């Protein structure tokens, strides 16, 4: 077998393949020919001859098919002309590539044995790989015509046209891109050496960079925020689609980074700050969709969306301060305070209570609004949630009365007999209250108010239900732990124990068979003094009272009964807190009247028919009720028009020590049962300035205790500690309940040193040492 | 126990103990002879519960391991065709995968080269009552594997096989098909969603499925192997009865499907292989299936031709193959049954044909067949080919890694004859020259590969005998040993001396030869 003969046969066949006239070729014969050539050690010349043939062929294709189709880049040509000529060129490149692939495939099939055996044994690149490299060098990098550069330019021009809104033939570009992806710089065909990456992509990215720098400038100039983010979103989608349909998906992350940089990173801050349409506008006007798009855009470049968080915080705090302003605005005229002047102060307290409730409702409304945006537009982003919490905490704590207000709000919603609210609705409102509670820094102040309000509800039986109250306390417990709620739970326990106690006492009385005694139903509440907010319940005065004999008898009977059961305890009676149902006979008819215990004691002084009238001083002596209380009760019994069961002479609004009081036998009322309240309302209201001052003092006092306790606890454990470390530890320990004031901590430390719990280390006065 | 006694005993005894002793003493020739004489012992165990292969592994007798592994695979593959299930694990999996990949796209067939891709779709639709489109299968597989379909084919003139024996659901039908196609269906044998599969398999006359659900499922490997063997049997019958008989036409007469025997037509062949050189008067046409072809050449030829054929009416694609009918039949039988069935004389032709047709897996099988030969007539070429032909074929077909060691060992064991003046010596010298000429291509070494191998096996040949001698013979204290050892020691020392002398003589002669041929020693 001569090489020349065999090659003549094969080369003839390969030419036929290129001429698309291969249907009559005998595959078996051609394969066998190549097989035998390899066996006869003609592999090398065969391999070279085939490559030469392919090379010649490709050079001819370039000259005859591609050169005439080269595009027209003349600046004078119209866009349409340029597009048409570009299209023709792309079509020609595509055609030559497809022809090459098809023919090379057939050649590879015929020369399979050469590939498998000769190329493999001699470590030569396969016919396929060499064929691809030949296409690269003889077509795209043809010495005479730079087809590759033309191709890049045409593709970029067409993409630019599409970016400007024209329609282009994507599929045609894509097939050329596929070609660039199928060709490599070297014969080992490394993935990062695709011509697409080495020759095309960089040019594309440069062009894109220029385009989007300009695009960003234009958009910012003409668009409002909503349009800007919409356009940006469209551009991002467009570029993504381009990587899927026109160029290679390999470019996707790179082009995305370019668009994101120019349209988002560089400008989004400015866009968000646009006054009439930026983030503030969107938040104020609940533009959920726009905010959502905005969020998604910012999220692309910053997963923490810091820019949004910063601006959102500013806005929320601003809106919160607007709500706070209502409170300050209200307080101002009342601030000079003309002293505890009855009605005027009452009125202002009522109004402020209403305002306090409105404050809470406004804050909750803001929270609802922000939550909706957070959930819908911000994909419930955890970081934004933190920001929202911080913002709310910031302005809520700026309002020093927020703990009181929030507790009042709970009181208002938990009170019995609220119209039109189901228990479930109440529960929902209370959940919201808990959210606000979370934001409060001075939890100890809240606790103080809450206990005060709670005690009133419990003693006056005003709660909607015990379950709701307990549920609420359960929620506090979850939030801040057992120590916060233990006293409140104690209050509940007292209430339960008292109920049992009352029942048992009744049974005890029944056993004694004291039939001749006047029956008095005693409903007693024994309160453990440490659980209850004593001072706020009783005021500063010590409550004394001389009970009329019929009452004194039952009081001492119960006292005996109780102390027998609980040896060693001390019972202190709190007449200022009780009420009594009394039956009173007037000229016209009998009435059942609900009065305060003190009022009952006063009225009983008139029970003796011999008593005509009593002066203020006489009543005071007889009952020894504290003066302030006595005045108030006499006011409600003798001054208030609808419940004037006593007659005061001379008739005036004030009660003076010289006034005389007598039984008003001619009293009439429309209702058979009614209630005589004390002058001060029974409901929970905001504190007056005076009360608040007291509360503040109490808070400081208890904080002082807590700080001392914490200092001693810490020092006992650590024995010796630097000042700064101790401060840090104390602040950390207490911050759950309140933010301790450093000067206060210092004072407490000084005080502890004085009392010789601690001392300063002699060598280093900045270090404290615990003294056992 | 002396080596002489052992060697003699090995020739006569059939017992496993003999084999084990030969292994312990490293008598590699005895081991080989024993294995060739009676292969049954390969999987047996002795009274210490050692298997021969286990023992060689422990003793680390390299040559013995090689011998045993090659003969064990050979042994097993040959037996697989007939009966006697062997416990030696061999690789039937490529064959099963070939079949499975026809039905299930999930079966990967990346490991198989030379198969037609994409895998050919089925040509026959089965219609279970709840499966609208029907389930597609391959007629030749159905006929091979099921008596039910075979009967239908034989009786039916319309070639319709889409009737099912009982009305049934798609899942059951598919389960039975999976079994036919050897898709391992261990997980699917729960009858929950394939209620009729067992019944159906009985109708189809598929013993394997019904049996498999009854026998203990523990021995999964064994079960799988026996399922594959059953399939091999089925395809062997199909081969013997239908496919092995080619259509024979006088040269020049065009082929047409209608000229095929009806029982072949019914199998719907899609490829026809034309065999017959231009000097023959007759041409043979083998009707086959793309589905079973494992030759890159045939697959590519079919694809190439079909690119120009697509406009015409389907019909099988004809590919002419330049081999003898005997080789063609051996190759096709292997395609269908995974069995190599050819006289040893044709083994070399088979290797060359497999190389030309690009059938890698068959090349290894042919090499195995070649390397089991160990008779002196290989030297003279009385069998149709000589050991020198084998070596050259190894170089030519890229199988030298398998064949070179065999040839070198064969020649080392008969070096005396190679060095005698005559035609054998002439051929031997030619081979050394050719091996030397291969150095140019392999840069990493500058020695003649064949000579390296020869020296290695030569030293192996003699070293084995030294090691078989009792250890004390090499120590100084040997003189102080008990008397009854003395006679024996004397005898073995004698043998040792002779052997040593012989070894030196042979290496010397080899060196001389090399010098004469003009190579550095």
From TrEMBL, chain A:
One of its GO terms (molecular function) is ubiquitin protein ligase binding. InterPro entries: Cullin, Cullin-like_AB, Cullin_CS, Cullin_homology, Cullin_homology_sf, Cullin_N, Cullin_neddylation_domain, Cullin_repeat-like_dom_sf. One of its GO terms (cellular component) is cullin-RING ubiquitin ligase complex. Gene3D superfamilies: Cullin Repeats, Cullin, Chain C, Domain 2, Winged helix-like DNA-binding domain superfamily/Winged helix DNA-binding domain. SMART domains: CULLIN, Cullin_Nedd8. GO terms for biological process: ubiquitin-dependent protein catabolic process. The keyword Ubl conjugation applies. Belongs to the cullin family. This is Cullin family profile domain-containing protein. It comes from Arthrobotrys oligospora (strain ATCC 24927 / CBS 115.81 / DSM 1491). The lineage of its organism: Eukaryota, Fungi, Dikarya, Ascomycota, Pezizomycotina.
TrEMBL record, chain B:
InterPro entries: ABTB1, BTB/POZ_dom, SKP1/BTB/POZ_sf. Pfam families: BTB. Residues 122-181, 269-344 form the BTB domain. Keywords: ANK repeat, Repeat. PROSITE patterns: BTB (PS50097). GO terms for cellular component: cytoplasm; ubiquitin ligase complex. SMART domains: BTB. This is BTB domain-containing protein.
